[in-house]
Amino acid sequence: MTASIIDGKGFAAKVRGEVGRHVKRLKDEHGITPGLAVVLVGEDPASQVYVRSKGKQTVEAGMNSYEHKRDASISQEELLALVEQLNGDPAVHGILVQLPLPDHIDEDLVINAIDPAKDVDGFHISNVGLLGTGQESMVPCTPLGCLMMLRDFHGSLSGMNAVVVGRSNIVGKPMAQLLLGDSCTVTIAHSRTKDIKEVTRRADIVVAAVGRPEMVTGDWIKPGATVIDVGINRIDAPEKGEGKTRLVGDCHFDSCAEVAGAITPVPGGVGPMTIACLLANTLTACCRANGIAAPEGLTA
Ligand SMILES: Nc1nc(=O)c2c([nH]1)NC[C@@H]1CN(c3ccc(C(=O)N[C@@H](CCC(=O)O)C(=O)O)cc3)C=[N+]21
Ligand SMILES: [Mg+2]
């Protein structure tokens, strides 16, 4: 078998186009422009790349983008004061504080200082609780993007056996909640899971979110299963020349693609969908803040 490739990059472009059409309508009919504030602390070059492409795509969708870059030495108090300022700014409908933060800053404290209604990452404890109880919330972008691709490919997910590999607050746990919400039978596997291959090999859907390059190989996959690869790992690529690198997922693409029915590539899979869902969440937050019905199909 050779798997179908799920085109996250193409799907993300469609989602961004749909967001852009709703943004235009908000402007034309209500005179409102959604605004996204991104806070970047420190100089990590990879983070800077993400922040730049987020800003560019935000503007392309017709929304306002506000970037707040701060030195890695910023104090926790100063960062909390910035979050408070953004909470109180009516032009800002979404706030994203890029993670990870430097070690001297308590990440949970900063995230929980964000107004939950503006928490477009869906990381605030209120949003986590709302998602877990099936109430309206802001849904984390990466799992939302994965869910959109799965729904698009399969239609209904009801009754499917889904295994999420990884138990992070950012991806694994919310992904499991969303799959449960779509009536999958959900297992969360992780580094301490015994006979993990036997667990994943029973899955109709495998979502790999462990942050270990190419850990999931074809022998972990049931023939015909759908594989969603969340990992974005930069590894050395001496075959491309001295000092060169390349991006790989948490799945070993070639061996998984021989067995799976469908698979997302890296790059061009989950990553672009994450950014598209960030824009969708910003639009949703803006609509809710203004008492306007948020467009369906862009939320969980
Ligand atoms: N509060 C917070 N929210 C985040 O959502 C968040 C964060 N912090 N910290 C960093 C990670 C990383 N992240 C990515 C999003 C898109 C791509 C993406 O689009 N990647 C392209 C490739 C990019 C390349 O070529 O380097 C792709 O997979 O095709 C990657 C990484 C969001 N993050
Ligand atoms: Mg930290």
TrEMBL record:
<dbReference type="GO" id="GO:0004488">
    <property type="term" value="F:methylenetetrahydrofolate dehydrogenase (NADP+) activity"/>
</dbReference>
<protein>
    <recommendedName>
        <fullName>Bifunctional protein FolD</fullName>
        <ecNumber>1.5.1.5</ecNumber>
        <ecNumber>3.5.4.9</ecNumber>
    </recommendedName>
</protein>
<comment type="function">
    <text>Catalyzes the oxidation of 5,10-methylenetetrahydrofolate to 5,10-methenyltetrahydrofolate and then the hydrolysis of 5,10-methenyltetrahydrofolate to 10-formyltetrahydrofolate.</text>
</comment>
<dbReference type="GO" id="GO:0004477">
    <property type="term" value="F:methenyltetrahydrofolate cyclohydrolase activity"/>
</dbReference>
<dbReference type="Pfam" id="PF00763">
    <property type="entry name" value="THF_DHG_CYH"/>
</dbReference>
<dbReference type="GO" id="GO:0005829">
    <property type="term" value="C:cytosol"/>
</dbReference>
<keyword id="KW-0378">Hydrolase</keyword>
<keyword id="KW-0511">Multifunctional enzyme</keyword>
<feature type="domain" description="Tetrahydrofolate dehydrogenase/cyclohydrolase NAD(P)-binding">
    <location>
        <begin position="140"/>
        <end position="288"/>
    </location>
</feature>
<comment type="pathway">
    <text>One-carbon metabolism; tetrahydrofolate interconversion.</text>
</comment>
<keyword id="KW-0521">NADP</keyword>
<keyword id="KW-0560">Oxidoreductase</keyword>
<dbReference type="InterPro" id="IPR046346">
    <property type="entry name" value="Aminoacid_DH-like_N_sf"/>
</dbReference>
<dbReference type="InterPro" id="IPR036291">
    <property type="entry name" value="NAD(P)-bd_dom_sf"/>
</dbReference>
<dbReference type="InterPro" id="IPR000672">
    <property type="entry name" value="THF_DH/CycHdrlase"/>
</dbReference>
<dbReference type="InterPro" id="IPR020631">
    <property type="entry name" value="THF_DH/CycHdrlase_NAD-bd_dom"/>
</dbReference>
<dbReference type="GO" id="GO:0009086">
    <property type="term" value="P:methionine biosynthetic process"/>
</dbReference>
<feature type="domain" description="Tetrahydrofolate dehydrogenase/cyclohydrolase catalytic">
    <location>
        <begin position="6"/>
        <end position="121"/>
    </location>
</feature>
<keyword id="KW-0368">Histidine biosynthesis</keyword>
<dbReference type="GO" id="GO:0035999">
    <property type="term" value="P:tetrahydrofolate interconversion"/>
</dbReference>
<dbReference type="Pfam" id="PF02882">
    <property type="entry name" value="THF_DHG_CYH_C"/>
</dbReference>
<dbReference type="GO" id="GO:0000105">
    <property type="term" value="P:L-histidine biosynthetic process"/>
</dbReference>
<comment type="subunit">
    <text>Homodimer.</text>
</comment>
<keyword id="KW-0486">Methionine biosynthesis</keyword>
<keyword id="KW-0554">One-carbon metabolism</keyword>
<dbReference type="InterPro" id="IPR020867">
    <property type="entry name" value="THF_DH/CycHdrlase_CS"/>
</dbReference>
<comment type="similarity">
    <text>Belongs to the tetrahydrofolate dehydrogenase/cyclohydrolase family.</text>
</comment>
<dbReference type="GO" id="GO:0006164">
    <property type="term" value="P:purine nucleotide biosynthetic process"/>
</dbReference>
<dbReference type="InterPro" id="IPR020630">
    <property type="entry name" value="THF_DH/CycHdrlase_cat_dom"/>
</dbReference>
<keyword id="KW-0658">Purine biosynthesis</keyword>
<feature type="binding site">
    <location>
        <position position="232"/>
    </location>
    <ligand>
        <name>NADP(+)</name>
    </ligand>
</feature>
<keyword id="KW-0028">Amino-acid biosynthesis</keyword>
<feature type="binding site">
    <location>
        <begin position="166"/>
        <end position="168"/>
    </location>
    <ligand>
        <name>NADP(+)</name>
    </ligand>
</feature>
